[in-house]
């Protein structure tokens, strides 16, 4: 059995499809909506996800697979994608994320990770020692959390228009 279990792989493969379904063609008012002060808009979440494909997940996986004596992760700039993708359209950003994710999945497949590889470790700058299996689980969980965040933002952006049905939507509770 490989470390890239079917469940993790399915999440990683489906995330770009889900995001395209949620965001492609959505109005700017929804894409740029902040559900509260300090919260990221769906566009910012998408920037973050695309940037993480370049600067977080694969670099960390490669650190874990290295033979170096000291395997330490570099800190991840969670908002780095905001600058990297400034001015990009949602459609172009979705395509970028799809291409980056497909390349990363292909790269992982080529690594032919084993169960023994799942126990490889590295040092996270805040969390300490983590395993490769935990990294992959975190990657898929990260995707799901941001899908939920985007969906919640879209619900709350439309929420004021539902009138008296508001009482039926827990996501619209104050």
Descriptive overview:
The chain is mainly α and 174 residues long. It has one domain (6-172): dinb family like domain (Four Helix Bundle (Hemerythrin (Met), subunit A)), CATH 1.20.120.450. 57% of the residues lie in helices and 5% in strands. The chain has helices spanning 6-23, 28-31, 42-55, 57-65, 80-84, 90-111, 132-158; strands at 121-124, 128-131. A hairpin with a 3-residue loop joins strand 1 and strand 2 (128-131). The model has no long low-confidence stretch (mean pLDDT 95).
Question: Any key phrases for this structure?
Answer:
mainly alpha; two-stranded antiparallel ribbon; 7 helices
Helix content: 55-70%
The CATH class label is: Mainly Alpha
CATH topology title: Four Helix Bundle (Hemerythrin (Met), subunit A)
Principal-axes shape call: elongated
- Using only C-alpha atoms, the radius of gyration works out to 18 Å
Q: Count the domains.
A: 1
The quaternary structure here is single chain
The low-confidence parts are none
Work out the number of β strands: 2
- Helix/strand order, N-terminal first: HHHHHHEEH
Largest sheet: 2 strands, antiparallel
Mean pLDDT, to the nearest integer, reads 95
